[in-house]
Amino acid sequence: MRAQPTASHFVDGAYLEDEAGTPFDSIHSATGEVIARLHAATPAVIDKAMKAAARAQKEWAATPPAARARVLRKAADLIYANNQALSELEALDTAKPIQETLVADATSGAEALEWFSAQAASIAGEAVPLGTDFAYTVREPLGVCVGIGAWNYPTQIACWKAAPALACGNAMVFKPSELTPLSTLKIAEIFMEAGAPAGLFNVVQGMGEVGAALTTHPLTAKVSLTGSVPTGGKVYAAAASGMRHATMELGGKSPMIVFDDADIEDAVGGAMLGNFYSAGQICSNGTRVFVQAGLEERFLERLIERTKEIRLGDPMDPETQMGPLVSEAQREKVLGYIETGKREGATLAHGGGVPSGGLFDKGAFVEPTIFSDVTDEMTIAREEIFGPVLSLLTFETEEEAVERANATPFGLAAGVFTGDITRAHRVAGALEAGICWINAYNLTPVEAPFGGVKQSGFGRENGRAAMEFYSQLKTIHVGLAPVDSPY
Ligand code: NDP
To answer: What's the predicted TM-score (pTM) here?
Structure first.
C-alpha cells in the first residue's frame, strides 16, 4: 500500500525534494503501515516557494478575470474526472472510509473551485459620485496567501482556501498537516495541468515550525489556518506582528438542541451525522446533544439502535461506514476522554471501547460512543474531543437550553431540531455560533459562508463572503475641479 509521492514538496510548478529536511512518515492508521516517507521543508524550500508564489501572483493578478476563471473551472473538472483516484488516496492518507471520501472530499474541493471560478469573473468595485469629483473602488488581491491545514479534510481544506484566494488574484503556499501530506500534492499537479502559472499554488510539507515560518515570512500577506484554538492563538499573534491578514477556522464544542416536537428520526440522524461522520473528526460536530426531557428515553433508544448498525472496518472497503481515527495518538486522546467521562459520572450508554480481531487489532479504531446523563460541568461536555463521542444532556425549557448551549468559549456551529417554525428561527437567532442548522446538521454547501465566532475563529470560507477575506479595497478619488488649496 505504498503511496510515495514523486517528492515531498510541489514548488514553482514542479516536485521538489530536499533531503536535508526532517524526515517523517505518512501512516495509514487502519493498518499502521507506512505508506510514504517525506521530508519537512527546509528554510531554503520555504523561501523558494514564497518567491515563486510572489512572482506567479503578479502574473496571475494581471490575467483577465475570465481567463483566471477558466483555469479554476478546468481544475474543478480535472478533480471531478479523477475523483476515484483522488478519493482512494485521501482514504489512504486520512483513513476515512472511501464511501465518504468519494462524496465529501475531492468533490467538495472541486465544487469550491467551480463556484469561485464564477465569482472570479464578477469581481467589481463601485462608483461613488461626489458632486464635481467622483471616486471608485477596486478590490485588489492581497498577494501571497499561506494556507495551513488540519488532517481531517486535507483536499477540501486546501481547495476551500485556494479557490477564493486564486479567484481574487492571489497566489498560495499551502502546508498540509504532517499526518496527511499526500493529497494536496495531487491538487498542485492539477492546477498546473489546468493552466495555472508555475508557482501559483505550492505545497510545502512539515510540522508546526514550517507553518510558523510561513506565517512570518516577509512575503506573506495573509494566513488562513484550519486547526485547533491553541494553534490559532499562536498563528494569529504571529500574523498580527506583521499586520498580516488572517482567517482562523478553529475548533468547537457545538450544541444541538432537540425539542420534543422534533421529527425524532431526523434528529437522531442529525445527531449521528454530527458525531460519527469521519469518525467524529469534524470541527463543527454537534457534540453536545441537548434533548428535551420528555423525549430523552425514546431518543436514546433510537440513537443506540441506529448506532449499533454502523459498519466499522477497512476504510478501503466500500461497505465501511466508519474507519479508525487518523493516528494512534488521536485514539489515545479520545480513549482518555472516554475514561474521564466514566470517571466523572456520565453513563456509558453505548460503545466506549476498542473493537478487536483482524484489522481492528492493527488500526486506531474506537467504537462509536454515546454518553447519557452528561452535565455541563463534565470535561466531555466542555472540551473538544475530535472523535466519535456523543454527549447527551437534557433540558426542560427553551430559555434554559439556549443559555446552556451558549455557555462555552467556542462558537463554531449549532443545530436546532423542532417542528415549530417560529421557535426554530428564534433559537437559531439566539445561539452564539457562526453557522446554525435548523432541522439539519453539518451541511456545508459552497454557496453559504462557513466559519466561527468567539474562540472558534473569524473570517469566512465559502460563499461570496470569502472573497472579502482574500482581497482588499482601494478607493481612487478623481479630482475634476481646480485644486482648492489655501496655500
Ligand atoms: P492543529 O491546530 O494541531 O494543527 C493545524 C495545522 O497547524 C497543522 O498543519 C499544524 O502542523 C499547524 N501548526 C501547528 N503549530 C503551528 C504554528 N505554531 N504555526 C503555524 N502552524 C502550526 O490541528 P489539528 O491538525 O490537530 O486539527 C484538528 C483541529 O482542527 C481541531 O481543533 C478542529 O476543530 C480544527 N478544525 C477546524 C475546522 C474549521 O473549519 N473550523 C475544520 C477542521 C478542523 P502539524 O500538525 O503538521 O504539526
So the answer is: 0.97
